[in-house]
Design brief:
The protein has 182 residues and is an all-alpha fold. The chain has six helices and two strands. The protein has one domain. Helix 1 runs antiparallel to helix 3, helix 2 packs across helix 3 and helix 2 runs antiparallel to helix 6.
């Protein structure tokens, strides 16, 4: 799935940076240029490094789950029912296994599942980078050129929620299209 989701995330990087920058500017009183550079750096690093590393960890977990299932009675079944195919696709989201009669629904379902851990890693990476690049204070009375740490974290979370909400809506529409055109 990394070969399907990652190129799309790279393609959407500039519009996401612009949208998150505007969101963070609206939530903080920092200089626009500083926030732009910090938002761009945070998003580039979370996309280029954070997403592939997260995918790699999830892939290793998937291999562990399926290796364990292979040695159990549950793993000896044939996973042919629709519910079993859906559960199998969710469990194997990082590297989806071929699913009989999946039509066009398996890939968007796996993409939806992967957006959840990608969101949390993106927020964490972007918070750390932004806190490093911007003048952050723990004081509740931030100066004109500073931002309170909690305000910045909330702004970064909100900006990512907006971005990932868009990605989630797109993947959901893709999933429904796949289900309807099966």
């Amino acid at each position: 799935m990394i070969f399907i989701t990652w190129p799309g995330m790279i393609l959407l990087l500039l519009p996401i940076i612009a949208a998150e920058w505007a969101f963070i500017i609206h939530r903080t009183s920092l200089q626009k240029r500083k926030v732009l550079w910090a938002t761009a750096a945070a998003n580039v690093l979370s996309t280029i490094v954070g997403i592939p590393l997260t995918w790699g960890v999830l892939f290793l977990c998937e291999m562990g789950v399926f290796a364990t299932l292979a040695h159990t009675k549950l793993g000896n079944g044939s996973w042919n029912s629709p519910l079993e195919q859906i559960v199998g696709t969710i469990l194997s989201a990082p590297w989806i296994a071929p699913v009989e009669n999946s039509g066009s629904w398996a890939v968007p379902l796996a993409a939806l599942v992967l957006l959840i851990p990608f969101y949390f890693v993106s927020v964490w990476v972007e918070e750390k980078i932004m806190e490093h690049m911007l003048p952050v204070t723990t004081s509740l009375d931030a100066q004109a050129n500073e931002v309170n740490e909690r305000v910045l974290r909330n702004a970064v979370r909100g900006a990512n929620l907006m971005s990932y909400g868009f990605l989630f809506a797109f993947a959901t529409a893709w999933l429904w299209w796949g289900v309807l055109h099966r």
